[in-house]
TrEMBL record:
Pfam families: PPR_2 (PF13041). Regulates mitochondrial small subunit maturation by controlling 15S rRNA 5'-end processing. Localizes to the 5' precursor of the 15S rRNA in a position that is subsequently occupied by mS47 in the mature yeast mtSSU. Uses structure and sequence-specific RNA recognition, binding to a single-stranded region of the precursor and specifically recognizing bases -6 to -1. The exchange of Ccm1 for mS47 is coupled to the irreversible removal of precursor rRNA that is accompanied by conformational changes of the mitoribosomal proteins uS5m and mS26. It comes from the Eukaryota. Belongs to the CCM1 family. Residues 61-101, 396-424 are annotated as: Disordered. Binds to mitochondrial small subunit 15S rRNA. Gene3D superfamilies: Tetratricopeptide repeat domain. Residues 61-78 have a biased composition (Polar residues). PPR repeats lie at residues 189-223. Residues 80-101, 412-424 have a biased composition (Basic and acidic residues). Keywords: Repeat. InterPro entries: PPR_rpt, TPR-like_helical_dom_sf. It comes from Diplocarpon rosae. This is Pentatricopeptide repeat-containing protein.
Length: 687
């Protein structure tokens, strides 16, 4: 069947002659006269340009219009004179400058069109079709899926659950966002919008979350209190908090507008203050803190005071790149401590009234502010714990006669005889007013069981007490608090608690207690610094005749706990064997050269297995050395070389000082030569 008009015309011409060209289809002739300029879609851009074939079709259309003016179909219409007359009737359009400009414009456009596109256009015109846009097809599919979902998610609760579960299990955020947008045209879906904002905040896309929040308002979806909580909480965890703070403050200040349906509450204010503390913007933080009220939704809670105290500590401690002088740093610390004590007075007052409750985090925040101070502040940490947790002080107060008997070093600082009421250390502010100390108070009582509402201690408080004891260089209170909290109150110490207590024992030169603590310590808590601290503790406890034995026990624990021994700990173990006194078994009071030699030989024998493993790790990358970077491998190689040189010097010491029998010199020389050859090979490999 012939469906193309051109084919029909050629077919009829072959049958009835040239008259078929003018009797084909009146609809085709009418269309050609109306739409004389067919537009072609430019797939490279967005313009529609005339092609060369279309330009020819226009000229053909002009001739067609000249011919079709006659309705009788006489020979004059088909003659050359008739065509010339028809062409002359339309000649005025192209006369003069306008016709030349238009012709030039057509020629320019003809040359701009690639021949391939012209052929494609002719083929598409002959077929009567156009290629389907993939983007439009995809949009239609998405719209169909959205409408299909909305049939079953017409309830806001169901839609919110679907949005939350979809964002949790997949990252198809664009589809979920379009679904919420479509559903928002007919109902309120604030919870679904909150899930979108929360998802973007969890991914760290704060700008996208704020844009979604603004779009939410434009679509008449009024944000609720949880919307602002999600925004502020996510912004507080943003990595670039200095850039995020101005944007969050703008949103926070907009909540005070008259047309705002949601006013800030304590949660919102705490989140914004946390951001201010991270950005070290103390003025903005205290400006927000001044907006707290005594009662109501804007009353401060324990978290509010915790944020303020932590901000004061960070501001007082400064940073590693601070430009302040030591005197200025000391003044800042003094101001922060005085200010924190004044805040603590308000905390205790609210606690006694029952307006807030005190937890471990708040007490630890106040205690760590005191840690940046001086000796009087460190001593007040014990009073702070007694005041808030009802744990008695394990050491008398500073300045009392009982304290002087326990701590002789404080006698030189407190020689002046004072009245007992005035022997407590006083801290005076710049204006001359005395800042109150941490005195015992009457705490609120629970209504249900009548038990006093003291704060419950935990690992954080144990770490605070151990750090205060370390600053005061006192072992007795540290041991007492450790026993009270871990054995009486059954608090499970964490890894940092063990390391803090090890540092206290190192200061006190308690090697035997260090070994006992390591035997109680869980194996998963042990790491390189654990044994490094323990070995240094034995190194300080050189007067103890059992020092080398304690160091050997620590070495055994390290070899059983770590996949790769700690090199500084091994070097410290060898130093202990060389420097620690060794006594004859028959005379435990007089050091013996032979006993010293046996002690050093024992240490060298114990180090050989670990040394072989370290050489394998250096050459073959076994164990955990595979994951080391080039810089770490160089550091590891340097430590191994230092240990090797120390072992060589130990062999020299044995032979030079005649600490062993002469018949052992040959074997010792062989061992020394192997170590020296290893060092030489390493130096030669480096070039």
């Amino acid at each position: 069947m012939l469906t193309c008009h051109v084919c029909i015309r050629h077919f009829l011409q072959n049958i009835i002659g040239d008259s078929a060209a003018f009797t084909a289809s009146s609809r085709f002739l009418l269309t050609s006269t109306v739409n004389t300029r067919t537009l072609r879609r430019n797939y490279i851009g967005t313009l529609y340009e005339i092609t060369k074939s279309q330009y020819r079709r226009e000229n053909a259309g002009i001739n067609t219009r000249g011919i079709s003016n006659a309705s009788t179909g006489t020979s004059y219409e088909r003659s050359q004179a008739g065509r010339d007359a028809a062409r002359g009737s339309n000649r005025g359009r192209f006369d003069g400058r306008d016709s030349e400009l238009e012709g030039n414009r057509y020629e320019k456009k003809v040359h701009q069109v690639p021949p391939r596109l012209v052929q494609r256009k002719q083929w598409l015109d002959s077929r009567g079709i156009r290629p389907i846009s993939k983007k439009e097809a995809k949009a239609k599919i998405v719209d169909r899926e959205i409408q299909q979902h909305l049939k079953y998610l017409n309830d806001p609760v169901k839609l919110a659950d679907f949005v939350r579960n979809t964002l949790r299990t997949s990252d198809n955020f664009d589809f979920v966002q379009e679904l919420v947008r479509t559903a928002s045209k007919h109902a309120l879906h604030v919870v679904s919008w909150n899930h979108l904002v929360g998802y973007l905040m969890s991914k760290g896309k704060m700008n996208a979350a704020i844009s979604t929040y603004n779009e939410m308002k434009k679509r008449a979806q009024t944000p609720d209190a949880y919307t602002y909580t999600t925004l502020f909480t996510g912004a507080a965890e943003h990595k670039d908090f200095k850039v995020a703070l101005p944007k969050v403050l703008n949103i926070y200040n907009s909540m005070f507008a008259e047309n705002s349906k949601v006013k800030p509450n304590t949660i919102h204010m705490n989140c914004v203050m946390k951001m201010c503390s991270k950005a070290m913007d103390m003025d903005a933080m205290f400006a927000i803190a001044s907006q707290f009220t005594e009662k109501g939704l804007k009353a401060p809670n324990n978290l509010s005071f915790t944020i303020i105290l932590n901000a004061l500590r960070l501001h007082a401690a400064g940073g590693p790149r601070t430009v302040l002088s030591p005197m200025e740093m000391r003044r800042h610390k003094r101001e922060a401590i005085v200010q924190s004590r004044e805040i603590w007075v308000e905390v205790i007052d609210r606690w006694r009234k029952g307006d807030i409750w005190i937890d471990e985090e708040l007490v630890a925040a106040m205690g760590r502010v005191l840690l940046v101070g001086e000796e009087e502040d460190w001593d007040d940490i014990f009073s702070l714990v007694q005041q808030t947790m009802n744990i008695p002080r394990q050491i008398p107060k500073l300045g009392t006669p009982a304290r002087q008997r326990i701590d002789p070093a404080s006698q030189s600082r407190d020689r002046d005889d004072k009245d007992p009421k005035e022997q407590q250390a006083e801290i005076v502010a710049e204006d001359g007013n005395r800042v109150p100390h941490f005195e015992n108070i009457t705490v609120p009582v629970s209504k249900e069981d009548g038990i006093a509402m003291y704060a419950k201690p935990g690992p954080n408080i144990l770490s605070l007490l151990l750090q205060a004891s370390l600053e005061l260089r006192l072992k007795a209170p540290a041991t007492s608090y450790w026993n009270v909290l871990t054995k009486s109150l059954l608090i499970q110490p964490d890894k940092e608690n063990y390391h803090a207590y090890l540092r206290v024992l190192r200061v006190a030169r308690s090697g035997t207690e260090t070994v006992q603590l390591l035997q109680e310590m869980p194996r998963e808590y042990m790491e390189s610094k654990t044994f490094r601290i323990s070995m240094s503790c034995c190194g300080r406890d050189k007067r103890n005749p059992h020092t080398f034995k304690n160091a050997g026990k620590i070495l055994d624990l390290m070899q059983m706990s770590l996949r790769q021994p700690d090199i500084p700990a091994l070097r410290e173990y060898l130093d202990i064997a060389i420097t620690a006194p060794a006594f004859d078994p028959t005379d435990s009071t007089t050091p013996s050269k032979q006993a010293q030699g046996k002690q050093i030989l024992r240490a060298l024998d114990r180090l050989n297995p670990s040394f072989i493993n370290l050489k394998s790790a250096l050459h073959f990358g076994v164990s955990s050395a595979k994951a080391l970077s080039d810089h770490a491998r160089k550091g590891m190689a340097k430590d191994i070389m230092d240990l090797t040189k120390r072992m060589i010097s130990a062999y020299d010491l044995l032979m030079d000082n005649a600490l062993v029998a002469r018949d052992m010199y040959i074997d010792l020389t062989k061992q020394r030569s192997k170590l020296a050859a290893f060092v030489s090979r390493y130096r030669n490999s480096r070039g």
